[in-house]
Amino acid sequence: MRGKHSLFYHILIFIIAQLVWLSLLGIWIYWYVSNYIIFEKVGEEVSPQLVYDVQNALPFVLGLILLIGLSFITSLIFRHLNVQLRINKLYDSFISNVTHELKSPLSSIQLYLETLRQRNVPEEKMKEFINMMMKDTDRLQGLINSILDISAQNSRKLILNYQVYKAETLIKKLIEESFERFHVNQESYRISGEADCEVFAGKDALKIVFDNLVDNALKYCTKQPEIDVKLECNSGKLVIGFSDNGIGIPSGEQKKVFNKFYRIYSSNIPNVKGTGLGLYRVKEIIKSHHGKVTVHSEGEGKGTTFRIELPVYKGAKDFPLKKFLFGKKLKQV
Questions:
Q1: What is the domain range of residue 185?
Q2: Which of 242, 281, 241 is nearest to 261 (CA)?
Q3: Residue 331 domain-assigned?
Q4: Are 167 and 268 found together in one domain?
Q5: Does pLDDT of 316 surpass 50?
Q6: Looking at residue 54, what is its pLDDT?
Q7: Average pLDDT, the chain
Q8: Distance separating alpha carbons of residues 314 and 322, to the nearest angstrom
């Protein structure tokens, strides 16, 4: 209901603006033509110079300025309308996705609880139910935390626990933990390369980054997943390449995947769950580390590669992230 009222409101404003613009244009044309006819009739009694200055030049210039101004205002209104319509569409999509994400684990928990209440469940089965319910509550907690973190990032209130880490040790550990969390067997992924450098990073934040990348690689894959992670330190950067063999991303979509609430809908995988916040969180977290994340895909069915660049830590005096220390000492891990 809210979306319909908002749509009607903005369309009405746009129509009114167009009518006002056309009315003013008609009034200006009528005024200009009528005055031209009057000056033509009395042209012999008025000096040619006066006729040119007053009747021709000034009204024409003022009318032209008026038309340009009105056209500019109308374009701004039209742009505002498009932005509002897009925001409303994203809002509706987000509410629908979040509702589904919340409802699914809640329904599962409810089913387990009803089963435990109505039946005498063996102890072994009861433990299995409890474990399943714990997984569902973890899923709910993760969704809630992601929404809260997005809000904190937008208001610049998200606090990350930055420390100095050995890059290769940290990244390999976080990636392997993500693979273990999503039950990816060792035959489905490979970690290669060396990263003999240090990074100034928030461990928990980077864990969210790799969890999202692994989650996407699994959700958008129609066959046995193959994930290739490459590490490299060069030119003062830690470079992490994360490639998968999923459905790929069309070239026109690649710049949009990091937008908030944006999701790719493919006929190949019609039932992919999510809120459209995962890659947005990845971008914001890497940005908070003064890094950069990009995506490349050859097209549909050809997999996707994410490239993450983080600045190498070379000492507190030369490092650009020292402002995050707030006067505290660095802790090296």
A1: 162-311
A2: 281
A3: no
A4: yes
A5: yes
A6: 46
A7: 76
A8: 11
